């Protein structure tokens, strides 16, 4: 599974990365989180508002930082 946080490094982008890492830890999944910070790469996903979270190339969250519980549900559904 490939997990990517799309964003330029703003406060919310960092918060999404931290919440995703916490969700993975609670699920017992040792998975790296890649950062996509280049505007062209972010726009290639069709994302116009950051932060965003992509799992296996599919954008799952855009423009907000979901709770750890919501992220856990999302990751389990994606097959973590």
What this model shows, in words?
By secondary structure, this protein is an alpha+beta fold. The protein has one domain (3-78): Glutaredoxin (3-Layer(aba) Sandwich). Helix content is 42%, strand content 21%. The protein has 3 helices and 4 strands, in the order βαβαββα. The protein has a 4-stranded mixed sheet. The protein is globular and about 35 Å long. 32% of the residues are buried. The mean pLDDT is 95.
Quick description:
This protein is α+β, with helices and mostly antiparallel strands and 80 residues long. Helix content is 42%, strand content 21%.
* CATH level-3 fold name: Glutaredoxin
Secondary-structure-based class equals alpha+beta
Distance between the termini: 7 Å
Order of helices and strands: EHEHEEH
Runs in which pLDDT lies below 50 for 5 or more consecutive residues are none
What would you give as the CATH superfamily? Glutaredoxin
Query: Into how many domains do the coordinates divide?
Result: 1
The side-by-side strand order for the widest beta sheet comes to 2-1-3-4
Radius of gyration: 11 Å
User: What share of residues is helical?
Assistant: 40-55%
Count of helical stretches:
3
Name of the top-level CATH class:
Alpha Beta
- Report the strand count: 4
Strand content: 15-25%
Sheet of most strands: 4 strands, mixed
């Amino acid at each position: 599974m490939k997990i990517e946080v799309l964003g330029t490094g703003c406060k919310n982008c960092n918060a999404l990365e931290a919440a995703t890492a916490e969700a993975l830890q609670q699920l017992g999944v040792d998975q790296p989180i890649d950062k996509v910070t280049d505007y062209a790469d972010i726009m290639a996903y069709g994302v116009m508002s950051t932060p965003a979270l992509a799992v296996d190339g599919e954008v799952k969250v855009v423009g907000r930082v979901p709770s750890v519980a919501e992220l856990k549900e999302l990751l389990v559904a994606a097959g973590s």
